Structures are given as structure tokens and as C-alpha cells.
């Protein structure tokens, strides 16, 4: 989730040096199909690496390849090495050397993530190995648990690079073990590793890490030789076909720079087309692949959807001239418009936009200016209008919990235990509570004149425009989500002041976090999107057909 952009930057730098590269998703991860790991275990991943290497050879015409692995990829690459006779070199970035230790660390880190999400004990995934809503297939976890790269008996490649974390002695020990096996080993520092992998929202890639890695590859003997084969033709893009759906990777927009996946039904198409707008810097699969699962379920109901990466997120490069921070900026509105242009050109003009948090914000803003967006499903939207001059970085850092969530957490026995163990930063928590209380007092004082103030007038104008355009708006909020602070300020607790907006519906999801981690929360989101798509599709098609019938024909007859 955190390193997708890192891999794109790395591939671009390799291309700048004249070297082709291929990155892919393992089965049961990313955009890939599910189910292979249940039968094949870890070998499903090693086989996919072997197949990817063969495809890279075919497409590029190369005779020698370099495998770049990170984290658990080190285990996969080592397992696949005997089947990769043409592997000239292997790079290990922050390698997992002990599978057993890795799974223990993952369990601890998973608890930290769940705590930060505000999940209660009963909402957490207790069976098997999971983190951030992603579950490792049980058969894979069992084989990973047995992995120990410090017991390798032969070198996976004659030349190896180990990019080490400063606080992990095992990385250094692994490099030394490869040397004892006879490998030509180079060691580099993985500067900024913790910043890269801790949070998708704040992930930063240090250019020096990319430059050092590309520099090592560029001077390998195989990189100096001309291609011995003839590059193959890519051929037509074939859809990925699963149970009730087929998915096609697409590139669209100016210079075909935006990357996404069109998910279509295998049966009769019905309803409006859904555009999923990614939240923050999450890749188009969504948090824990949630968007992917939503898209495939919609396809089984006959509903087509498009999920894509906005510029400078995931696999989509940045828009020239745009700042590094793209959230809540005008550039993302252009990205969404290009996505709708693509669907319109593909014969799918009836569109609804769905998103969470910043994705929900983007959907609502574009719906105000683009008549082609016929409806919006907005989940946990934090603000309805971005205040001029407000710092995105500061807002992201201070996006904490609501007072309601603090109250709910304080009543849990596990919270008391964590306080007694010293695991809770009480000063920070009290600071957030104090700021929230002051904000609530201020909001109540200004409540009478809220729609007379500039921000309030802007929010009211947004909702009145969507009402005038007869665009349905489904607002979904997790119970105690921090976005409710602004919602309650303008529309009252529970939306009592929305009585005049018949196009707006509000759904509260009990005991759910901001990312909709529990399965029932995602089912609520799915139901809202499906209902709107099926309601809008036929209605808008009828209007368009009637408008076409009312237009005079080319001979002037009516």
C-alpha cells in the first residue's frame, strides 16, 4: 500500500537509463485474481515471478534479468531463484530473513494499526495473519513461517545487493551470509525506510535510495551488452476474467498518463457506471483492496465501474507543473474529468462518483461543475469546502478522532489497560480533546450565523446547486467519525437541518472506523452505491431517450 509509488518511480528511472522493467501483483493481492494461494501456497507467488520474468524477456528482448525484491519479496525471489537461470543479479531491499520473526512483527504492527483506526477488540481480524484489512492466505503464511534466508545453501544469484535498514542487524547478517556462499555482494543503506512504509498518506521516497539502486543495476555487466533478442509485440490487452466480472487495465487522459482498471460484468450491463475516486494516496485497489472487492461485487450485479490512480498517486505520474502535494487541489478535479471523458467516449455517459474522505470531497466538488456526474456517494467526507490558505499537511497531521470516539474509547477496558501500561500518550490525547472542545464551543457560538459566513455560504451553495440539478447525494458516516464535526455544525446532529434537501440521504454506520474496516461497514457502502447506480441508470437513460425523441430531425420535422 505504501510502496506502489516507489516502484513506479524506480521503473521510470530505469527507463531513463534505457532499461525495461516489469512490476506485477501476486495472486490474491492488488489487482490479481484470488484463490490460487489456497491450493498452491507460496508457490503461487514464486510461479508468478517466474512467469513475469518470462514475459519481461519476451517483451524486451533481453537475455539477462535483474530481480528486485523488497520485504517478503526476498523470500519469494529466493524460492524462485532455481527456476531463473537467466537472473544475472538479485537486489534485496529491507529483506525478510526470518519468516517466523516477520509474522510476529506483523502481528504487533497490526495491533498498532487497529488501535490507530479505533477498532474495538471484537472488530479485529483474529484468525490468521492480517494487517490493514489485508489477510495473508493461510497456506502462504504457513510456508512463510518456515522461511529462514540465513540458512540458504546456495546463492540465489552471482551478484547480490542488500539495501539494509540501520536498526536491523539481520540485514547485515544476511549480506555476510551471501558473501560466505560466494556471491559478489554490494551493500547500501535504506535511508528513510520507516517514513516510506509506515503510512500510505505520509509515505515519502528518498531520491537517493532510487538513484543508488538504479546506479548499481546500470553498471552490471549484463546492462552493458546490447539486446540479444528481438522485442516482442505487446499485443492486445486481455481482460482478467473472474467469477461474474472481467477487468481490463486502461490508460487515459492527456498523454494516456492516468492508470486504472475498468471492471465490467460478464452478463447484461445495467444501471449507471460508477467511478471510484481514491482516498488520499491509496492506490486504486483501495484500503485493504476494498475498492477492488466493491467493483467486482457491482459487476456481478451488472454494474460497470472504473477505479484509477489520480496524478502522483500509485501508478499515475504527476501532472507537469503541479505541486508535490495534490490532495484537495484543482489538479485532481481535472483527473476525475478525464476519467469521465474516457467513460463517455467508451459509450458509458451515465456516471455516479463514489469515494471516501478526500475522494468523497473530490466527487462532490466535480459533481457541482460537471453535469455528467448524475449522483454522489460520499463516505466520511471530512469537509465540504476546502478553506483558502488551509495547509493540507497540517490538516492531515491533525486529523484526529472526534470527541465521540474519544468518549467511546475511554469506556473500553482495553483502553484503561493501555493507559496503565504507559502505551497511551495522554498529553497528546488531552490536547486533541481540548482542541475539539474549543472547536465545538466555537461552532455552537457561531451556529446561528453559520450560513452567513463565507465558508457557510459556500457550503450552502454547493448543496443548493446539487439540489437544483436533482443529483442524489448519499452521505455515509462511521459513528463518531471526525468528519461529523463539520456535518453536525451545518446540518445538525443526524442531519435534522437537511429537511429541505430531498436529494440528500444520510446513513450512520455504527461501530465502524474511518476506513470502513469491518465487513458490515463495507457492505453498507456497497449497498448505497448499487442502489444509486441501479436507480439513476434507467432514469437518466429514459430522460435522454425522451430528449432525443423531442429534438427535430435533420429535415426540420418534429
Mind explaining what this structure looks like?
The chain has 558 residues and is of the alpha/beta class. It contains 19 helices and 15 strands. The protein has two domains: 221 residues, Rossmann fold (3-Layer(aba) Sandwich); 291 residues, Rossmann fold.
Task: Name a few traits of the molecule.
558 residues; alpha/beta; Rossmann fold; 2 domains; nine-stranded mixed beta sheet; four-stranded parallel beta sheet; 15 strands; 42% helix; 15% strand; globular; disordered C terminus
Summarize the structure.
The chain is an alpha/beta fold and 558 residues long.
Give a topology summary.
Elements (H helix, E strand, L loop, with lengths): L3 H13 L19 H5 L2 H18 L4 E6 L2 H8 L6 E7 L5 H19 L11 E3 L2 E3 L1 H8 L13 E6 L4 H12 L3 E6 L3 H5 L9 H12 L21 E3 L2 E8 L5 E8 L7 E5 L12 H11 L4 E4 L21 H16 L5 E6 L1 H12 L3 E7 L12 H6 L5 H8 L2 H8 L5 H21 L7 H15 L4 E6 L5 H8 L12 E6 L9 H32 L8
Parallel strand pairs: 1-2, 2-5, 5-6, 10-11, 10-12, 12-13, 13-14, 14-15
Antiparallel strand pairs: 3-4, 7-8, 8-9, 9-11
Q: What structural class do helix, strand and pairing data support?
A: alpha/beta
Cα-to-Cα separation, first versus last residue: 57 Å
Shape: globular
Biggest pleated sheet: 9 strands, mixed
Full CATH superfamily name of the largest domain: Alpha/Beta hydrolase fold, catalytic domain
Return Rg in Å: 26 Å
Please give the CATH class of the largest domain: Alpha Beta
Mean of residue pLDDT? 87
Strand neighbour order, sheet with most strands = 7-8-9-11-10-12-13-14-15
Beta content comes to 15-25%
CATH topology of the largest domain: Rossmann fold
Per CATH, the architecture of the largest domain is 3-Layer(aba) Sandwich
How many independent structural domains? 2
**Which residue ranges are poorly predicted, with pLDDT under 50 across at least 5 consecutive positions?**
553-558
Total beta-strand segments: 15
The percent of residues in helical segments reads 40-55%
The helix count comes to: 19
Amino acid at each position: 500500500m505504501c510502496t506502489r509509488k516507489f516502484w513506479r518511480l524506480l521503473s521510470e528511472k530505469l527507463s531513463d537509463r534505457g532499461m525495461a522493467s516489469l512490476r506485477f501483483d501476486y495472486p490474491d493481492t492488488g489487482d490479481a485474481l484470488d484463490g490460487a494461494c489456497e491450493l498452491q501456497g507460496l508457490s503461487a507467488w514464486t510461479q508468478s515471478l517466474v512467469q513475469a520474468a518470462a514475459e519481461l524477456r519476451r517483451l524486451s528482448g533481453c537475455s539477462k534479468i535483474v530481480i528486485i525484491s523488497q520485504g517478503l519479496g526476498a523470500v519469494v525471489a529466493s524460492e524462485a531463484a532455481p527456476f531463473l537461470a537467466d537472473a544475472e543479479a538479485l537486489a534485496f531491499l529491507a529483506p525478510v530473513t526470518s519468516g517466523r520473526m516477520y509474522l510476529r512483527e506483523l502481528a504487533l504492527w497490526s495491533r498498532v494499526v487497529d488501535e490507530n483506526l479505533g477498532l474495538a477488540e471484537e472488530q479485529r481480524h483474529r484468525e490468521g495473519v492480517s494487517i490493514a484489512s489485508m489477510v495473508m492466505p493461510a497456506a502462504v503464511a504457513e510456508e512463510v513461517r518456515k522461511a529462514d534466508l540465513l540458512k540458504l545453501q546456495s546463492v540465489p544469484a552471482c551478484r547480490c545487493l542488500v539495501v539494509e535498514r540501520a536498526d536491523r542487524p539481520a540485514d547485515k547478517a544476511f549480506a555476510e551470509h551471501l558473501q560466505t556462499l560466494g556471491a559478489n555482494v554490494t551493500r547500501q543503506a535504506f535511508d528513510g525506510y520507516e517514513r516510506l512504509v509506515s503510512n500510505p498518506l505520509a509515505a515519502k521516497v528518498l531520491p537517493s535510495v532510487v538513484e543508488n539502486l538504479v546506479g548499481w543495476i546500470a553498471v552490471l555487466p549484463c546492462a552493458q551488452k546490447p539486446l540479444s533478442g528481438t522485442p516482442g509485440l505487446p499485443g492486445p490487452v486481455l481482460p482478467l476474467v473472474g467469477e461474474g466480472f472481467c477487468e481490463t487495465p486502461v490508460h487515459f487522459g492527456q498523454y494516456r498518463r492516468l492508470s486504472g482498471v475498468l471492471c465490467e460484468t460478464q452478463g447484461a450491463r445495467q444501471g449507471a457506471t460508477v467511478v471510484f475516486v481514491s482516498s488520499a494516496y491509496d492506490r486504486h485497489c483501495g484500503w485493504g483492496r476494498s475498492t477492488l472487492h466493491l467493483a467486482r461485487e457491482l459487476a456481478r450485479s451488472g454494474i460497470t465501474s472504473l477505479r484509477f490512480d489520480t496524478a502522483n498517486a500509485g501508478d499515475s505520474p504527476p501532472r507537469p507543473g503541479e505541486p508535490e502535494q495534490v490532495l484537495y487541489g484543482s489538479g485532481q478535479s481535472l483527473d476525475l474529468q478525464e476519467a469521465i471523458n474516457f467513460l463517455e467516449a467508451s459509450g458509458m455517459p451515465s456516471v455516479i462518483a463514489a469515494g471516501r474522505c478526500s475522494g468523497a470531497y473530490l466527487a462532490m466538488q466535480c459533481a457541482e461543475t460537471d453535469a455528467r456526474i448524475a449522483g454522489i456517494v460520499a463516505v466520511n467526507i471530512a469537509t465540504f469546502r476546502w478553506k483558502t490558505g488551509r495547509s493540507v499537511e497540517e490538516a492531515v497531521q491533525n486529523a484526529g478522532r472526534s470527541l465521540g470516539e474519544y468518549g467511546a474509547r475511554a469506556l473500553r477496558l482495553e483502553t484503561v489497560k493501555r493507559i496503565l501500561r504507559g502505551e497511551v500518550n495522554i498529553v497528546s490525547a488531552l490536547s486533541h480533546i481540548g482542541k475539539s472542545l474549543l472547536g465545538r464551543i466555537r461552532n455552537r457560538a457561531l451556529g446561528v450565523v453559520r450560513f452567513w459566513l463565507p465558508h457557510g455560504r459556500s457550503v450552502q451553495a454547493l448543496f443548493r446547486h446539487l439540489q437544483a440539478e436533482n443529483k442524489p447525494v448519499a452521505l455515509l458516516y462511521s459513528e463518531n467519525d471526525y468528519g461529523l464535526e463539520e456535518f453536525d455544525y451545518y446540518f445538525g446532529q443526524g442531519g435534522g437541518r437537511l429537511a429541505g434537501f430531498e436529494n440528500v440521504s444520510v446513513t450512520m454506520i455504527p461501530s465502524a472506523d474511518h476506513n470502513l474496516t469491518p465487513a458490515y461497514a463495507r457492505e453498507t457502502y456497497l449497498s448505497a452505491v448499487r442502489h444509486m447506480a441501479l436507480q439513476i441508470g434507467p432514469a437518466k437513460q429514459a430522460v435522454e431517450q425522451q430528449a432525443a425523441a423531442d429534438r427535430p430531425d435533420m429535415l426540420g420535422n418534429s
